[in-house]
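Quick one:
INPUT:
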């Protein structure tokens, strides 16, 4: 162990060890599988309680640590590779692939949802976090990247791809790859293609891109 490793304190080393184990624990994010239970889909309900938020949020520390200990770039790159690979799968877009139309539970929301919903629409309004795939005027859109909504999905994925390239120096994900991979719901994208498509959406929508359908976040 060289002195170079001392640039990470014990807490950071523990986090790195945990992320490495977590990223390399075998699981299946395709439609016929399920993420390992150590991927959090509870915290931040109703908006961020999806496996992909735990996955993407885990990448920030990896990129920061890679700047502190660049000699460990292969370790950091391996972790990010596992994160990106999972994000191409069905479970990364579970909400978009299952939340169709208006939320049938919106008349029964718990009281702590009230700050998220305009007061005069309480009981008749989809809470942020319900993606509402298929509502008018958009119709059903199977591809979460190409969809009018899902800004947060493709935006955070673009960031994750960028961190992978920044840390590894590998342009692998700028080559075409398939996303979702659920029969006819398989869509070809690349890092640069996603970024260009997202930029086009911003250019064509003065108000901004939707996260959930009909919901554009001002911040």
């Amino acid at each position: 162990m060289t002195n170079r490793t001392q640039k990470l304190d014990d807490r950071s080393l523990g986090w790195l060890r945990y992320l490495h184990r977590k990223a390399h624990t075998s699981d299946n994010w395709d439609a016929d599988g399920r993420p390992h239970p150590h991927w959090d889909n509870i915290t931040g309900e109703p908006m961020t309680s999806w496996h992909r938020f735990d996955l993407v949020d885990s990448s920030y520390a990896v990129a920061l640590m890679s700047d502190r200990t660049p000699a460990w770039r292969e370790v950091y790159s391996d972790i990010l590779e596992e994160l990106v690979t999972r994000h191409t799968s069905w479970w990364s877009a579970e909400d978009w692939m299952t939340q169709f139309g208006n939320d049938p539970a919106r008349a029964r929301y718990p009281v702590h949802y009230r700050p998220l919903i305009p007061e005069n629409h309480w009981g008749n309004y989809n809470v942020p976090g319900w993606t509402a795939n298929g509502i008018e005027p958009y119709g059903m859109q199977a591809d979460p990247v190409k969809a009018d909504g899902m800004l947060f999905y493709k935006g955070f994925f673009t960031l994750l791809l960028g961190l992978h390239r920044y840390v590894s120096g590998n342009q692998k994900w700028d080559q075409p790859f398939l996303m979702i991979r659920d029969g006819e719901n398989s869509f070809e994208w690349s890092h640069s293609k996603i970024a260009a498509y997202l930029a086009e959406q911003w250019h064509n929508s003065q108000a901004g891109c939707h996260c959930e359908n009909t919901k554009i976040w001002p911040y």
